[in-house]
Amino acid sequence: MKTDLLPTGSTIGILGGGQLGRMLSVAASRLGFKAHIFESGSNPPAADVAHALTTAPYDDHAALTAFAKSCDIVTFEFENIPTAALDVIEAHATIRPGREALRISQDRLTEKMFLQDLGLMVAPFADVPDAAAMDAALLSIGTPSILKTRRLGYDGKGQVRLRSTDDAAPALAQMNGAPAILEGFVDFTHEVSVIAARSSTGDVACFDPGENVHRDGILHSTTVPARLSAVQRTDAVLMAAKVLNALDYVGVLGVEIFVTRKELIVNEIAPRVHNSGHWTQNGCTVDQFEQHIRAITGWPLGDGTRFADVVMENLIGDDMDRVPALARESDTAVHLYGKSETKPGRKMGHVNRITR
Ligand code: ATP
Ligand code: MG
After folding, report:
1. Which residue's CA is minimally distant from atom 21 of ligand 1?
2. By residue range, what is the domain housing residue 168?
3. Ligand 1 centroid vs 257 CA: distance in angstroms?
């Protein structure tokens, strides 16, 4: 496949105006492109740094059509875009990465089956389409386990842990009737992720895997280098490449992996730039945001070689009070998202500390 470079001044549409859309917009503008944000909520952080903003719900087909017509290429910062909205956009503009990656990652069951079919290890899982299916799922998966909604989960939302079968009924109640999967609890030593990119000509490049620590279901920090042997590092990168090639993917994708004493188990994939890739902003010549823009505009992939050890720490909710002190730290880059309202659990920014 040969793709021509999108010319300077072209417009990149971005579905979603959060911090990921904001950092993608900055990367786009650095390469001479214009970003057009489509966002259903008010005051999207990305709008501050974008060329244009459309504020409309995802069922406003006229707004989607006008948006798509104004764009030379469309991408997204989150995976839960309604299928009907994608159909409307695709009638007028190419969406990258493609629909298949979205279809698979929108549903945890489809995602698990896709990964398993690729020969990758995943946690044991069982479909729980309704409450009646729970007994059979518990029989095959047992406890400890985690009940997760198939759709629309993020930052650990829509998940309930089961310590024993006694927890099954309250866990089911929390699903509110939504289809779910029961996942065996993985006894991992640590979590890592690979941020991988594939160009429009099929070249693949991966950033060095990062080690992730979650607190209360939300990513707290990413450290590079991750604790991985040379073999594990290669395996992790090959797993990501396998996913990219199977999806004929164009753009950046995050692969979350559990490291156990025996093996690497894929937790989930995210068809977009990823919070655990923010360290690349200060640890690589070309970061994940530029890499994504390069891929979707037909540019060659950039040099993502890691030149520093970095610890990325998310600033969540009241962590914003620490900004004056963080601003005085040496070897620390502060990245803020410009969100007007601080809320508990809300990602407000992050810092990248160069540790070596
Ligand atoms: P995010 O948006 O942060 O990626 P999410 O809502 O999509 O989160 P998951 O990635 O599935 O949810 O789970 C969040 C975290 O919960 C994982 O990173 C891991 O720490 C823990 N977790 C999830 N599934 C399992 C499992 N099967 N065994 C052990 N821990 C798990
Ligand atoms: Mg996750």
Report:
1. 217
2. 124-184
3. 10
Query: What stretch of H or E contains 191?
Result: strand 190-198
Examine residue 115 and state whether it is found in any structural domain, yes or no.
no
Q: Do 210 and 307 sit in the same domain of this protein?
A: yes
What is the position in ligand 1's atom list of the atom closest to the CA of 218? Answer: 3
Whether residues 251 and 344 fall in one domain:
yes
Beta bridge pairs of residue 193: 210, 256
**What is the distance between the alpha carbons of residues 196 and 239, in angstroms, rounded to a whole number?**
10
What is the chain's pLDDT, residue by residue, as a tens digit (356 residues)? 445 799 999 999 999 999 999 999 999 999 999 999 999 999 999 999 999 999 999 999 999 999 999 999 999 999 999 999 999 999 999 999 999 999 999 999 999 999 999 999 999 999 999 888 999 999 999 999 999 999 987 777 789 999 999 998 999 999 888 999 999 999 999 999 999 999 999 999 999 999 999 998 899 999 999 999 999 999 999 999 999 999 999 999 999 999 999 999 999 999 999 999 999 999 999 999 999 999 999 999 999 999 999 999 999 999 999 999 999 999 999 999 999 899 999 999 999 999 99
Determine the Cα angle at 146 with ends 143 and 147, to 5°. Answer: 115
Residue 5 lies in a domain: no
354 to each of 148, 307, 327, 351, how far by Cα in Å?
36, 10, 14, 10
Co-location of 317 and 199 in the same domain? yes
| Residue nearest ligand 1's atom 12 by CA | 156
Assess if residue 1 is contained within a domain. Answer: no
CATH of the domain at 28: 3.40.50.20
184, 206, 231 - which closes a domain: 184
Nearest ligand atom owner, CA of 157:
1
Pocket of ligand 1 (CB under 6 A): 123, 146, 153-157, 183, 185-186, 191, 214, 217, 219, 256, 267-268
Asked if residue 144 and residue 90 are part of one domain, the reply reads: no
Rounded to an integer, what distance in angstroms lies between the CA atom of residue 67 and that of residue 79? 18
